[in-house]
Specification:
The structure is a homodimer.
Chain A: E1 3-8, H1 16-31, E2 35-40, H2 46-57, H3 63-86, E3 92-95, E4 102-104, E5 113-116, H4 119-126, E6 130-134, E7 137-140, E8 146-148, H5 153-165, E9 169-174, E10 195-197, H6 198-206, H7 214-223, E11 227-231, E12 239-242, E13 261-265, E14 268-277, H8 282-292, E15 300-302, E16 311-319, H9 323-332, H10 334-337, E17 341-345, E18 348-354, H11 364-374, E19 381-385, E20 388-394, H12 398-408
Parallel strand pairs in A: 1-2, 1-9, 2-6, 3-6, 4-7, 9-11, 10-12
Antiparallel strand pairs in A: 4-5, 7-8, 11-12, 13-18, 14-16, 14-17, 15-16, 18-20, 19-20
Helix pairs in contact in A: 1-3, 2-3, 5-7, 6-7, 8-9, 11-12
């Protein structure tokens, strides 16, 4: 008997059948004696359809109105899920983000949660109801306008509610069985991970694993909320994301696994600034120009300066969708900085190896690079954190690179086969 | 320069093209120097589609959740209308019923407006914005739950906002050119009425004219809000609903027209209770039983008691959709009241002649019945008010009856031809 927060993505509630299946699962959890708070995304392609409608009347819809429009999606799914649960004889009440007390800043389309005041949700639970909450949305503290949280918003809503209400677990239901040691579409022998730490999950999410979003994991780590990532299409145990290292809870004496998994990302582009004067402050000016355009830089590499010329090359990666904006921003400071040339390459891929055990195993980088070399993959950039190594290679080399690394670190499953059900939630 | 409230029905905002057309009209009103508050219904068939979705998961969805679901419809249309206006370079902000301060009781699906506190709307106007408000919806004063106002709800929202904000006019945009002397689909020579009084409009709306709903007209009369019913598909002047008799304003010396128009209604059924003991209180018991089932009775006729039996027959009409419920309610009191038989007839139609001038022209009833007789229409029930005569006849006789009465009272147009654009708004 405890408090369970469950989040269902758009693919889990894509149609009436999916909603009825989700309702069965929620009802079962309630009947098992738990208090249940459910966070839902919009049904299937609803959000895309609403965006399409907006674009039919306006090439650049005002952000406030776009948020007002898109939040209709979760309003529909939450009400229908509540109806489906009520039809099973269990009382259910739906609440918008605003009604659920999800208070945000005023940054429409990418609002940050400032506070959660779930008084109405608690009352509903106290009165024996299941509470259904619209994910992805909140209300601005200052303007009282409706806001949306941006990508991964529904996951973040679920974790934020779980934190505010002291839930025992936040279950994130999706269309895969959990977090895998690699993308099963690239590596059919990928293994479902029974456990990963917040730290590892952050690195996986930041480097291309799509099953959980970075913000949601950050939020869960900050408040110590255990996340259970699992499939809404099966009853299998999924992946637990906690502060306990993998496998340690089950068999405390066992040595911790070194590597959790391999992530990849084909959404970035590489920008190279050629012939930057090698003086203090020049690199800072470059990155300031890019940051001022609202673009997040991921990896950065600066070559050793050529003594003869007193100039150096600086490469960085950023989202492809921001690539042209980054070039424009840099071009505007070309005169002030005096670099020679801008190169742009959007045919790159990134492979990352993540594992908390890497800290105490110095040979990992060598083995990683060796595996890539054996597979004929050329490394263009390298960056590392305490528990991650990432490299940039040609985009078309990604599948072979992921498989080679996955195999080299003995991550292949011996029995369990991954199931991918298609689609991704918001 | 004044404050104009405009309401656009579902057929006016059925798709992106319709919304852009509506936005042009709103922008033109704003550019003419007026403050503009716009009330919108859900786009086209959205409400029906949402109801269909609800029925796929639950045969009898909880009313609270159905309201939550249906209000997504206006949320979508209002946001998209606001975007379309913004795209014309005019600032527009959308507001839900709750944000607009439409406070209701807690009767989900048929909530009554208790109060309107349009502070946020006024602020938006003061800051130079057009305000777009979701029709049909409000928020319960007691539970803070989202409510819907039931049929004609968006018209009522518009008039209520106009009253609360002291608007100069409430323009109701629809898919016909105004209020006609009869349904143009039955009487091609029907005339658009330049003016009708609230009183006449109430009788027309209560007796089958669908262009405005009773509640909205009642609200407008109570607060003295002039309504201008007009088409969103043309620039023509429509019909003004005010407290001034028809034509009197234009030509004060002219005699008032006797008759405004002919309404008809094919949505009612007739129930006859045969052999009711002719004692005080028996009729009251019958009607109490029907009222307790939540059914509104329209016309009532009680025959003269047959002296020999001491029994009488009582007939009444009610909505066909409530017919079976009325029979069940009456059957439950059959023993207590001791009537003999229940007859049910849902093949009836009702024709009503409405005109404020009827008060001072005693021959109207005779002429009305004569016209029906000449057309071979048999009268089954008659009821009258000060400014209306209604009769019940066979359903299939309705078109001929309407045309005959329309012609007998010289209501046919001499020049203007009615245009029906198809569909009806909510």
């Amino acid at each position: 008997m405890g408090l369970v927060v469950q989040k269902y993505g758009g693919s889990s509630v894509a149609d009436a059948e999916g909603i009825k299946r989700v309702a069965q699962r929620i009802a079962a959890t309630k009947k098992a004696g738990h208090d249940v708070v459910v966070v839902v995304s919009a049904m299937g392609d609803t959000t895309d359809e609403l965006i399409d409608l907006a674009e039919q009347v306006s090439p650049l819809p005002p952000a406030r109105e776009l948020d007002m429009l898109l939040t209709a999606g979760e309003r529909i799914s939450m009400a229908v899920v509540a109806m489906a649960i009520a039809n099973l004889g269990i009382e259910a009440r739906s609440f918008t983000g605003s009604q659920a007390g999800v208070i945000t800043d005023s940054a429409h389309g990418k609002a940050r949660i400032i506070d959660v005041t779930p008084g109405r949700i608690q009352t509903a639970l106290d009165e024996g109801s299941v509470a259904i909450v619209a994910g992805f949305q909140g209300v601005s503290q200052d303007t009282k306008d409706i806001t949306t949280l941006g990508r991964g918003g529904s996951d973040t809503t679920a974790v934020a509610l779980a934190a505010a209400m002291g839930a025992d677990v936040c279950e994130i239901y999706t269309d895969v069985d959990g977090v895998f040691s690699a993308d099963p579409r690239l590596v059919p022998t990928a293994r479902k991970l029974p456990r990963v730490t917040y730290e590892e999950m952050l690195e996986l999410a930041a480097n291309g694993a799509k099953v959980l979003h970075l913000r949601c994991v950050e939020y869960a780590r900050r408040y110590g909320i255990p996340i259970h990532v699992r499939s809404s299409f099966s009853q299998k145990e999924g992946t637990w994301v906690t502060d306990q290292p993998q496998d340690q809870q089950e068999e405390p004496g066992m040595e911790q696994a070194i590597i959790s998994g391999v992530a990849h990302d084909r959404s970035e582009a590489k920008v190279t600034v050629v012939g930057v004067p090698d003086k203090p402050g020049e690199a800072a000016s470059l990155f300031r120009a890019v940051a001022d355009a609202g673009i997040n830089i991921d990896m950065v590499v600066q070559n050793v300066s050529a003594a003869a010329t007193g100039r150096t090359d600086i490469s960085f990666t950023c989202p492809r969708s921001d690539g042209q904006a980054a070039l424009s921003a840099l071009d505007r400071v070309r005169g002030a900085i005096g670099f020679e040339q801008l190169l742009y390459d959007d045919s790159i891929g990134k492979i990352s190896l993540v594992g908390a055990g890497m800290r105490s195993h110095p040979g990992v980088t060598a083995e990683f690079c060796g595996a890539l070399a054996d597979a004929g993959v050329n490394i263009e950039l390298i960056s590392t954190s305490e528990i991650r190594i990432s490299v940039v290679c040609r985009e078309e080399a990604v599948p072979a690179a992921v498989a080679a690394v996955h195999h080299a670190f003995q991550l292949d499953a011996t029995d369990e086969v991954a199931t991918v059900y298609g689609g991704t939630g918001r």
